User: What shape does this take?
Amino acid sequence: MGMANDRPIYECQPCGACCRNPEYNRQWGFIDYVQLFPTDQLFKLKGRRSELAQKNDADEWHMRMTADGHCVALEGATGEHTACGIYDVRPNVCRKVQPGDEKCIIARQERGLPL
Assistant: This one.
């Protein structure tokens, strides 16, 4: 992480915090995190869709989460080195998160990563 204009530069690969179920979801007991929509490119992976996504009680598609609360597509260790195993077809919701934006900062704080 470097500095630009007195602001830190955040990099995704040594982080992965945004790929974990956030505290506000866990407080409400939600295990769903990344909602999927018909326009998401992930639906092109018909053969792998069931291992990557599932429907919740409201019949909405979401990315599957591991038992410890991170997206099944996340590879590596949060805060050390991570990668998205489906980066080219990742959901639109994931594409919207940008390094250093509000959701990024909140996710980093929840995981105890440097700001």
